Amino acid sequence: MNHQLLKIESTDQKPESYLREIGSLFAVFDEHSQDSGNISYGVQVDRRRFFVKTAGDPSDLRSFLSHKERVSLLHNAVRLRRSCAHCALPQLHNVIESLHGPMLVYDWIEGELLRADSATRQQPQSALQRFRRLPVPEILSALHHVFELHLELAQAGWIAVDFYDGCLIYDFAIRKMQVIDLDMYREGPFVNGMGRMFGSSRYMAPEEFERGAIIDEKTTVFTMGRTVANLLSDGSLARSAFRGGDGHYSILRRACCASRDQRFASISEFFSAWQEAGKGALSG
Ligand SMILES: Nc1ncnc2c1ncn2[C@@H]1O[C@H](COP(=O)(O)OP(=O)(O)O)[C@@H](O)[C@H]1O
Ligand SMILES: [Mg+2]
Questions:
Q1: Is residue 269 located within the same domain as residue 204?
Q2: Is residue 59 included in any domain, yes or no?
Q3: Predicted confidence (pLDDT) at residue 2 exceeds the cutoff of 80
Q4: What is the pLDDT of residues 99-144, one digit of tens each?
Q5: Does one domain contain both 79 and 120?
Q6: Distance from the CA of 181 to the center of ligand 1, in angstroms?
Q7: 6 lies in some domain
Q8: pLDDT tens for residues 180-191?
Q9: How far is the CA of 282 from the centre of ligand 1 (A)?
Q10: Which of 35, 40, 41 gets mutated to test ligand 1 (max ligand atoms within 8 A of its CB)?
Q11: pLDDT band at 284 (very low <50, low <70, confident <90, very high)
């Protein structure tokens, strides 16, 4: 496709007017579904679908983050995407400067967001609960994809922030997991300057609640452990709820230790142990 959406560098229009002019909008993610202040669009051009993310309206002051901060997170997302080629991340085709700041033109991902809010999380028909009921090998394969991505990100220096099931889109038909919205990831270890950081407490390490604490790869290890607990179990660390084998269970427990010293030191260590345990499960 040789369309201007993939080519132009800037427009003096607002994102929505521009997108309505060049294609057809089939989805809008605004304050009705998001609390980020960002506004994103599903747009179809010719027969191809894109997800276009923007920092929203600069004059809207309701969000926790200012427009300037939101723009800076979008630039961060661009840096992250360009530093990592893993196929779990949607393609980023273009960044267009608009009257309301950058528009990030990603591929549209088919599938269902695994996020469920506290009201719907336990509903059997929610995407998260349906995912949890899939055959174990299918869940293991999706987890493998997420861990492999985080290994590549860790190798590029990225620490996970605000990762949770709202970052996971699963296509149940073709069994494919994709990862979105890593805008808050940080390059290199840093000091928690907020106290409770952004994120879902179901995925967060103790240091993410403690002002002055170091946030580093061990924090990402904890978050990946919580991902296992939420996708291959019922969110708890109970052995009885865990659907995997003993080897994977002990890795889950170690990754989710409150004490940082007892966790795996890196994503690489965590992922190697996970894969090793997987081989054991297959052979015996
Ligand atoms: N590439 C994509 N393809 C299809 N839908 C997407 C894509 N990226 C995000 N979404 C959907 O749009 C919503 C908002 O995107 P997200 O990046 O999470 O923005 P925010 O910064 O507002 O949280 C997500 O919850 C998801 O449902
Ligand atoms: Mg989001």
A1: yes
A2: yes
A3: no
A4: 999 999 999 999 999 997 888 878 999 999 999 999 999 999 999 9
A5: no
A6: 6
A7: no
A8: 999 999 999 999
A9: 36
A10: 40
A11: very low
Cβ of 163 closer than 6 Å to ligand 1, yes or no, is no
* Distance from C-alpha of 8 to C-alpha of 6, rounded to nearest angstrom: 6
Last residue of some domain: 85, 107, 129? 107
Residue corresponding to tokens 């427990």 = 253
Burial 39-68 (b: 16+ CB within 10 A, else e): bbbbbebeeebbbbbbbbbeeeeebebebe
186 and 130 together in one domain: yes
Give the closest residue to 128 by CA, choosing from 197, 139, 137, 23. 139
Shared domain for 200 and 61, answered yes or no, is no
What does the pLDDT average to over 242-250?
98
> Which amino acid is present at 224?
M
Measured over the CA atoms of residue 56, residue 59, residue 63 and residue 66, the dihedral's sign is: positive
Q: Are residue 143 and residue 243 in the same domain, yes or no?
A: yes
- Cα 219 to Cα 207: distance, rounded to the nearest angstrom: 8
**Nearest alpha carbon, ligand 1 atom 25:** 166
pLDDT averaged over the chain?
Answer: 95
- What is residue 258's DSSP assignment? S
Give the pair of three-digit tokens for residue 31.
Answer: 């304050």
* 7/94 Cα distance (integer angstroms): 7
User: Atom of ligand 1 at shortest distance to CA of 181?
Assistant: 17
One DSSP character per residue, 165-199 reads: GGGEEEETTTTEEEE---TT-EES-EE--SSS-SS
Distance, CA 77 to ligand 1 centroid (Å)? 13
CATH code for position 194: 1.10.510.10
Alpha carbon of 114 to those of 5, 130, 131, 179, 181: distances in Å?
Answer: 29, 9, 8, 11, 13
